[in-house]
Amino acid sequence: xxTRLTMxxxxxxxxxxxxxxxxxxxxxxxxxxxxxxxxxxxxRASSPVSSQVVIASIVVxxxxxxDDDAGEASARISRKLxxxxxxxxxxxxxxxxxxxxxxxxxxxxxxxxxxxxNQIQPVNAQYKLSDVLKGKIEIYVYNALVSPQATxxxxxxxRIVLAILERYPKWGLTPAVKENFAHYQVICTRVSKRFSDxxxxxxxxxxQSMGTVNQDALGSHRxxxxxxxxxxxxxxKLKGTTSxxxxxxxxxxxxxxxxxxxxxxxxxxxxxVSYWKTVDKQLHDIRECFKDQPKxxxxxxxxxxxxxxxxxxxxxxxxxLDDLESVALTNxxxxxxxxxLGIVTIMxxxxx
Length: 352
Hints:
Radius of gyration: 38 Å
Order of helices and strands: HHHHHHHHHHHHEEHHHHHH
Distance between the termini: 98 Å
Helix content: 55-70%
Largest sheet: 2 strands, antiparallel
Shape: elongated
Strand content: under 5%
């Protein structure tokens, strides 16, 4: 009766051989045992084929192309990979080497690449922001988000802050730093993260300001809601961790109107929709709607939103809108607002 073979046994049979019987397998095992015991120890120890033998056999059987063929192949590969002159010369040189030297040449290149890679440090280890630059980023991100001139809250603010930082190289964003991609990315990442963190805190403050809606005999009204002036005052206290002297803003009527708009957008936001993306789109639509009308028209539009907010969320007994009409912007607020309008302003006061 034929016996089931293992995969190793089956692979060792000749192509036209049939499956052996149990007795044949037994005889084969005894025969293999005898021949193995008679084989010299040195022969058995060297039976595995070494990698050197494999490489040598490849080299012996390899027919090296002519210099002309190697040169044409190198030129073709150089064009395809867009190699520079030095790299093309190195490729041509390697193509004309004997195969065993090409192998050693490639091993040498790999070792060199590994050495270079081990010497590379993380971007953050190569370049660290100064405390001065961190403080300026904190201040300008903060001012950009609370500015009523903001045309967007996601990507546009980043560009505004970076544009301002470039005007003052002594803070750290020098032309050399900007030309160094890795260093510049450290600054861009810092600005982006601070915007993200600030937006999250502002949205949370707005959410917490809404209170709850109660229904009684007089109708529906909000309970434990925060009036708009207190809301904006709370937001302006979200100054991060910086201890910079001039991290403050002056609250204006326009700022109250902008935050009334932001609160209205959150109230009307459908479930599962991105808040800040919706805000940016709505601001774009508003600008498009009023682009052919007098500038006062858009101010009147936002003033109407503010009036509705005062009715729904209440007023502040200690503050009146008339008190804010004559409030002047700080130098930082002015610079941010001007930058958003495309006006370049350089501060010359101590606030710099």
